Amino acid sequence: MSTDDTAETVRDDAARERLIDLAAQFYDQFALGDIPHMEVPTRTKSNIEYDPEKKVWVYGDRTSTRTANTVGGAQKLLKAVYTIDFLAQQLEEDRSSTLRELYYLSESWDNENAQFKSQDESNQLVEDLEIVSEVTREDFHMRPEESGATVIGPLFLREQTRRGEREIHCQEDVGEGGYQIPNNPDTIEFLDHDADFVLCVETGGMRDRLVENGFDTDYNCIVVHLKGQPARATRRITKRLHDELDLPVVVFTDGDPWSYRIYGSVAYGSIKSAHLSEYLATPEAKFVGIRPQDIQEYDLPADPLSDSDVNALESELEDPRYQTAFWEEQIGLQLDIGKKSEQQALASRGLDFVTETYLPERLTEMGII
C-alpha cells in the first residue's frame, strides 16, 4: 500500500469515526434522559460575518437546535441518523455517491419518515453534518454532479484513483480540454511545476481562446476554468496552488456585478459554504478584469445595466468584501456609465488582442509578470 493509499484510509477512518460519534451522542442523550438534539450555526445571511483578519466569510455566534421535542424536529434527527448510517457504510465499503443519488437512495429506506421530500432537504442535511462533524462532504465520499472544470498549464501532479496512482503533466499529457479537476482535489499531489501564476477564467469561450493562443505556454500560466460560479473542488485546487506552490492567483471574469461575485467566491468564500471558507477561499486572489474602466478605455461592445444589475452593484458597495478603493472606484464608474461587458467583447479588437495586449498589459501593471 502506497503512502497516499495509507493517508486516504486514515482519512476515511477518521471521517467514519466522527460520524459514528455524532450518532452516539443521540444515544447518550437518551441514556441521560435528555431530549436528543443537534446544534448547528444558524445558516441565515444575518449570521454570516466577514472576518477582516482572515478575509473570508465565517458563521457568527448564533446557533439553531435540531431537537426531538417536536414531530418535525424528531423527523430531522431521524433523517440525520439514517444518513449517518448510510455514509458510514459507504466509507467502510470505500464507495462514493452523488448528492442527487442520496436523495433518491432515501426512497429505499425502511422508514418513510426518514425519506427526503426534496434534494434541497438532503443537501442541507449533508451541510449540517459537515459543520457538526468538522468533516467535509468530500471526505464522506459525497460528490456533486460533475462540474467539468479543468486545469491546463505547466503543472505535474500525481492523482490517486481507483485504478491506482496516475502521474499527469497538465500540458503534455492532456488534450486541449485540459485536466479535469477531481471531486476531491486533496487526493492530488503536486510533483513539480514551471508556472509563474494561476489565471482563473470564468467562461469556456475565453478559456478556449487562451489555450488556442498558447497563453499558458507563453506565460508559464496555469489556466483554471471556473465554469461560471466555481464548484468547491475548483476553489479548493486554486487555494492549494496558491498556498502550496506559492503562486499568485488572478481572476478574469465578465464585467458585471454577478461576475464580481464569482471573483468574491474565489477570494473570500461564499455565504453558503461559510463553514469552509478557510479551506476553500484564497483571499490573496486579485481581480484582473473585465473592469468598467476597460469598457471605456477599449471602447468595448456593451449592454445597458438592468435594474437588477444596478441593485446588485449598489449591494456590493455595502459588502465588506468590496469596500476597497479599487472596487469603490470601479463600481462607482460602472453605475455612472450604466454599462456591462463580456470577456469575449475583447474580440472586437481582434482574436489575439486578449493574449497579446490586454492580459500582458494588465498583468504587468499588477506586478504578476
Automatic annotation (TrEMBL):
It holds the Pfam family Topo_VI_alpha. Its EC number is 5.6.2.2. Mg(2+) binds at residues 202, 254. Its cofactor is Mg(2+). Residues 197-363 form the Topoisomerase 6 subunit A/Spo11 TOPRIM domain. InterPro entries: Spo11/TopoVI_A, Spo11/TopoVI_A_N, Spo11/TopoVI_A_sf, Topo_VI_alpha, TopoVI_A, TOPRIM_Topo6A/Spo11, WH-like_DNA-bd_sf. GO terms for biological process: DNA replication; DNA topological change. Residues 76-141 form the Spo11/DNA topoisomerase VI subunit A N-terminal domain. It is an enzyme of class 5 (isomerase). One of its GO terms (cellular component) is chromosome. GO terms for molecular function: ATP binding; DNA binding; DNA topoisomerase type II (double strand cut, ATP-hydrolyzing) activity; magnesium ion binding. PANTHER family: MEIOTIC RECOMBINATION PROTEIN SPO11. Homodimer. Heterotetramer of two Top6A and two Top6B chains. This is Type 2 DNA topoisomerase 6 subunit A. It comes from Salinirubellus salinus.
